[in-house]
Write a structure and sequence with these properties.
The chain is α/β, with parallel strands linked by helices and 511 residues long. The chain contains 19 helices and eleven strands. It has a seven-stranded mixed sheet, with helices on both faces. A two-stranded antiparallel sheet has the order 8-9. It binds nicotinamide 8-bromo-adenine dinucleotide phosphate.
């Protein structure tokens, strides 16, 4: 039986994330009262951790929500880690019925849509403090240190801060590298925690969504580098593993490059001398946060084309049967083995990957810049990049460069305009263009590399063919156009089919 008012934190939802985050908090000395809808899950887990988890005694199982609520110190702090969507509202309503009060803090740590978080904070405001926090890092991050992205009422954050800083991943103060010397019962000591207050209402969940959108494009770019090198150089998985392991020692040093190297050298348990990756079916799944990022980019009119392209690449891959049929009917060029220097091509693909990655992050940060205006947040981009340096899936050496860029100029309009990133793309773009050309000439799909290059070339163009587009719109729909030789805000219309008809000034900006 849980003791009254004894536990520091309540946690609801004992699937992968909940179990691991509860143990992480317990390792840091917090007592955690836990609850899961299916009570057998709670009991079996408690039985299992008793034997090998040093902090198991600080986990307090409960079988109904009244028991959980009664066991918490005030103001009560309850973390919800259930499937995002309707389950979150169901749990909050049950918590309110179970005795949660106005000053208690209910934190949704799932992958919730930020607009749901904004709505929930308002809807429950008279009955509890509803708070949203993104958590990234999967099972290991939740267990030993995640990137925590909190957003909500600043007064509630004061009560949560020390817990969030404890369970967050830590990075080295000087190098910014993740500190990963941890074990059950022995969390990382010292270091800078990968969490910071991001802003009110949905800010935390919005930043988490952008993190996931970037994760999609980061993964897609790596997959394209893998397929280009495999096809153009005929490299086997274990040879490619060495290439990625080598890249992981330089600018591309990141968790995703590191796990790619690990995956590629893994032999298949069924076919002894072959590689598992070659037997994994090429049909990608997705859970929706990448799609939300793409949809939000479209809604706000921000050109995050590479992030959207990464989502579409997954959609295209999922059409496996259709693609197999199409491959028998639709012809393209025969892929030619690259006849030049092998190491030079490997280096060119590395540079193409780095340049594309810079564009992808530029898009993600441009989205956040727009969203903060829309939602009246004041996001700190240097800190956002800093809290992604450890714990989360996109953790990378590169993020320090983004922190440096926004520290130099917190109002930076686009990452591409920062001197460091400008120089990196200047250095890498000849190779990037060569790689994109090779993909096109050889008929290898590389949508992320190509769309990132199109973004770069479009963004640096003082003049785009949208002049013709505006004329087309005016021709068929009288949508009007502005002129290059008149002030902005003066809109004209022409009766196009009738040659010689005068141009009409339709509207002027209000004085
Ligand atoms: P899942 O997203 O798989 O959800 C399973 C949990 O939700 C179980 O505890 C289940 O209880 C509970 N649940 C459901 Br489903 N419907 C419920 C309801 N109506 N009332 C109460 N409980 C309900 O768990 P997860 O993978 O641990 O993820 C938790 C959250 O964290 C999600 O929002 C997820 O998107 C996010 N997240 C996951 C990861 C990851 O790597 N897995 C990473 C980052 C964020 P039951 O046992 O009774 O069915």
């Amino acid at each position: 039986m849980a003791q009254q008012n004894a536990a520091d934190i309540g946690l609801i939802g004992l699937a992968v994330m909940g179990q691991n985050l509860a143990l992480n908090a317990a390792d840091h000395g917090y007592s955690v009262a836990v609850f899961n809808r299916t009570t057998s899950v709670t009991d079996e887990w408690i039985e299992k951790i008793k034997t090998h988890e040093p902090s198991a005694s600080r986990i307090i199982p409960t079988h109904d929500l009244r028991q959980l609520v009664a066991s918490l110190k005030r103001p009560r702090k309850v973390i919800i880690l259930v499937k995002a969507g309707a389950a979150v509202d169901a749990v909050v309503k049950q918590l309110l019925e179970a005795g949660i009060e106005k000053d208690d803090i209910v934190v949704d740590c799932g992958n919730s849509l930020w607009t749901d978080t904004i709505r929930r904070e308002k809807e429950y405001a008279s009955r509890c403090k509803f708070f949203g926090s993104g958590v990234s890092g999967g099972e290991v991050g939740a267990r030993f240190g995640a990137s925590m992205m909190p957003g909500g009422d600043p007064a509630s954050w004061k009560h949560l801060q020390s817990i969030w800083e404890a369970v967050a991943a830590k990075v080295d103060v000087k190098t910014g590298k993740p500190l990963e010397d941890y074990a059950p019962g022995k969390p990382v000591q010292g270091g800078v925690p990968c969490t910071t207050y991001l802003g009110p209402d949905g800010a935390g969940h919005y930043v988490k969504m952008i993190h996931n959108g970037i994760e999609y494009i980061d993964m897609q770019l790596i997959c394209e580098a893998y397929t280009l090198l495999g096809n153009l150089l005929g490299l086997k998985a274990d040879e490619l593993a060495k290439v990625f392991a080598h890249w992981n020692e330089g600018d591309l040093d990141s968790y995703l490059i590191q796990i790619t190297a690990d995956i590629l050298q893994q032999h298949d348990p069924k076919h002894k001398n072959e590689f598992l990756v070659d037997y994994v079916l090429d049909a990608a799944g997705q859970k929706g946060t990448g799609k939300w990022t793409g949809v939000n980019a479209l809604d706000m009119g921000i050109p995050a084309n590479s992030i959207a392209e990464a989502v579409f690449a997954r959609c295209l891959s999922a059409l496996k049967d259709e693609r197999v049929q199409a491959s028998k009917q639709l012809k393209g060029p025969q892929t030619q083995t690259y006849s030049g220097n092998r190491d030079e091509l490997i280096n060119a693909v590395r540079q193409a990957l780095y340049c594309s990655k810079i564009c992808a992050y530029a898009q993600g940060f441009q989205l956040m810049r727009e969203a903060q205006n829309e939602y009246k947040w004041k996001l700190n981009f240097a800190q956002i990049a800093a809290i992604w340096r450890g714990g989360c899936i996109i953790r990378a050496r590169f993020l320090q460069k983004i922190t440096d860029a926004y520290t130099r100029d917190s109002e930076l309009v686009n990452l591409l305009l920062d001197p460091y990133f400008n120089e990196q793309i200047s250095k890498g773009q000849a190779a990037w263009r060569q790689v994109v050309s090779l993909a096109a000439v050889n008929g290898i799909a590389a949508p992320a590399f190509m769309s990132a290059l199109a973004y770069y070339d479009g963004y640096r163009s003082a003049r785009l063919p949208a002049n013709l587009l505006q004329a087309q719109r005016d021709y068929f729909g009288a949508h009007t156009y502005e002129r290059t030789d008149e002030p902005r805000g003066h809109f004209f219309h022409m009766d196009w089919p009738e040659a010689g008809r005068p141009q009409v000034l339709v509207t002027k900006p209000a004085k």
